[in-house]
């Protein structure tokens, strides 16, 4: 995905994928996912809630050529 054009369908696929993966953990719930591009990478900001304690946190992930995905 890093090398494909960043279209609305790619953005939607990333949001759906992140939501599905995080929600596999029954203790977590995704509140919001924002996907942006920067230089030659993708930045994902995900607001998650830790359900047992009702605590919300921001999770930030960056994927680019330097951080690598191999």
Give an overview in words.
This protein is α+β, with helices and mostly antiparallel strands. It is 23% helix and 44% strand. It contains 1 helix and 3 strands. It has a 3-stranded antiparallel β-sheet with strand order 1-2-3, with helices on one face. A hairpin with a 2-residue loop joins strand 1 and strand 2. It is elongated.
Quick rundown:
This protein has one helix at residues 8-23; strands spanning 28-38, 41-50, 55-64.
List keywords for this structure.
70 residues, elongated, 44% strand, single chain, alpha+beta, three-stranded antiparallel β-sheet
Q: Calculate Rg over CA atoms.
A: 13 Å
Q: Give the end-to-end Cα distance, rounded to a whole number of Å.
A: 12 Å
H and E order: HEEE
Average pLDDT figure: 88
Indicate the overall shape: elongated
As a percent range, the share of helical residues equals: 10-25%
User: In which order are the strands of the major sheet placed?
Assistant: 1-2-3
Poorly predicted ranges (pLDDT <50, ≥5 residues)?
A: none
Strand content: 35-45%
The number of E-state strands comes to: 3
Total of DSSP H or I helical runs spanning 4+ residues? 1
Helix-strand category? alpha+beta
């Amino acid at each position: 995905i890093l090398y494909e054009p960043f279209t609305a369908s790619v953005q939607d696929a990333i949001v759906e994928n992140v939501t599905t993966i995080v929600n596999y953990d029954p203790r977590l719930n995704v509140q919001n996912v924002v996907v942006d591009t920067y230089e030659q990478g993708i930045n994902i900001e995900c607001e998650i809630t830790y359900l047992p304690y009702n605590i919300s946190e921001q999770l930030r992930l960056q994927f680019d050529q330097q951080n690598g995905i191999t």
